[in-house]
């Protein structure tokens, strides 16, 4: 099997366990919570997106990872993480909290969709090995982020 085929299979299959987990455990819990508390829980998860800057660290990713992909993905994640943190910090000021919740959701979803598009355009599946230590991010972490 080619690296591109394996990567694409991993991308698709990465969603299935998270959807099953979300449906069985997370969604019922979120539904039972106050809306602001549920948004706070999701913002906490997304606040770790600052970690996307790892795509720009030589040695963590391979030297042939397309910089057009790495830079856009890194800064999109970083921005989303900061917006999620701002939402958490502003939870007592509801209008501001809601603004940051909407912002991190819109920016975060756009970031992931743009990264998928850029990855396809730049041939990332064939270069999946260049993700190196960051390979798990689009396979394991991104599906969870996209679902939430």
In short:
Keywords: Membrane, Transmembrane, Transmembrane helix. The chain is an all-alpha fold and 148 residues long.
Fold topology:
Layout: H1 3-13, H2 15-32, H3 35-46, H4 67-89, H5 94-121, H6 136-147
Keywords: Membrane, Transmembrane, Transmembrane helix
Transmembrane segments: 6-27, 48-66, 72-89, 96-114, 126-147
Poorly predicted runs of 5 or more residues: none
Mean pLDDT: 98
Give the % helix. Answer: over 70%
Radius of gyration: 16 Å
Q: Give the count of helical stretches.
A: 6
Q: What is the element string, with H for helices and E for strands?
A: HHHHHH
Distance from first to last alpha carbon: 32 Å
Q: Provide the β-strand percentage band.
A: under 5%
Largest sheet: none
Oligomeric state of this protein: single chain
User: How would you classify the helix and strand content by structural class?
Assistant: mainly alpha
Shape: globular
Domain unit count:
1
The total beta strand count reads: 0
Keywords: Membrane, Transmembrane, Transmembrane helix
Transmembrane segments: 6-27, 48-66, 72-89, 96-114, 126-147
């Amino acid at each position: 099997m080619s690296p591109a085929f394996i990567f694409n299979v991993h991308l698709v299959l990465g969603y299935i366990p998270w959807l099953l987990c979300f449906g069985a455990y997370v969604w019922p819990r979120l539904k039972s919570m106050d809306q602001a508390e549920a948004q706070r829980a999701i913002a906490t998860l997304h606040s770790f997106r600052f970690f996307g800057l790892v795509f720009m660290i030589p040695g963590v990713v391979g030297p042939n990872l397309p910089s057009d992909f790495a830079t856009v993905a890194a800064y999109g994640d970083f921005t989303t993480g900061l917006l999620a943190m701002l939402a958490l910090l502003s939870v007592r000021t509801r209008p501001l909290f809601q603004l940051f919740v909407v912002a991190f959701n819109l920016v975060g979803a756009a970031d992931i969709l743009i990264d998928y598009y850029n990855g396809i355009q730049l041939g990332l599946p064939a270069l999946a090995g260049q993700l190196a230590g960051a390979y798990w991010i689009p396979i394991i972490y991104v599906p969870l982020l996209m679902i939430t």
